[in-house]
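Technical note accompanying the year-one report. For the benefit of new consortium partners, we illustrate the data format agreed upon in the data management plan: each record pairs a sequence with a structure-token string. No post-processing was applied to the example shown here.
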Amino acid sequence: MGTPPRLAEVVDEGVMLSAVPWSLAGDLTPVLLVHGLASNARLWDGVGADLASRGHPVLAVDQRGHGLSSKPDHGYDFPTLTRDLERLITRLGWLDRAPVLAGQSWGGNVVLDLAAHHPGVASGVVLVDGGTIELSARFADWPTCEAALAPPPLTGTPFTQVEGWVRGNHPDWPEEGIQGTLANMEVLGDGTVRPWLSRDHHMQILRHLWQHHPRELYPDVTIPTALVMAEDRSNQRWMAGKRDEVAAAASALGSWAHVHWIPGDHDLHAQHPAAVAALIHDLCARGDGEGRA
């Protein structure tokens, strides 16, 4: 199944979100798929196709500044980003259907924030190796975080070189995951690349993420929430801290939390789309039974 033609929705003055509508029909719970920082909707291709085949209306969106969406110089704070998504859900006619929101990495923090501050919009949340990110707990101060997480200078790199890196680093990924990753960049006429997300916008988002505190939001999330986390068995020291972080989140979420560990990379949705889709599908059923009781 090829990637469906895109749709575009205006969600703010001068701001259009581009999205991949895997299906806008179906009787099951709708699903909105939200990518991570410096990523794009295409990394959800495998998950989107799987969920559509099960009967879910499903849409993967490029957030502002990313992919084929508008790239304004402002609006990268969490209140604006969540308003973008709420307006998109409204435009789709999904507001009364209470979709499940699935977000990866920074996108997990975005959908968690949306669920906490806009109760009733969603019937469930799926956090794919994200939603628990508290940079201020990982780094001593903002300059240290800024230096560690600034994006690499990829502009001007030949596309063939970038493709070689992606394929070499992810030999077990399906082709759709490889192509989704490559879609993070615009290919210019001279055969070089430029990330769709500019460095300035990237750093604005990173600064807002530094100021974001998911632990303050967990008590306000009272819908089924799946924490789908990547298990890196090669780095046990990192995993020890990560397990503590996830356990704290699950404890704060209480009976709403469902924790799943999948051995793999940070981009689990690109590496293991069938497994991630199955967990989203299962959470949709929980949302039908619990979130609308």
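Partners are asked to follow this layout when depositing records. Residues 7-291 form a domain with the Rossmann fold fold (CATH 3.40.50.1820).
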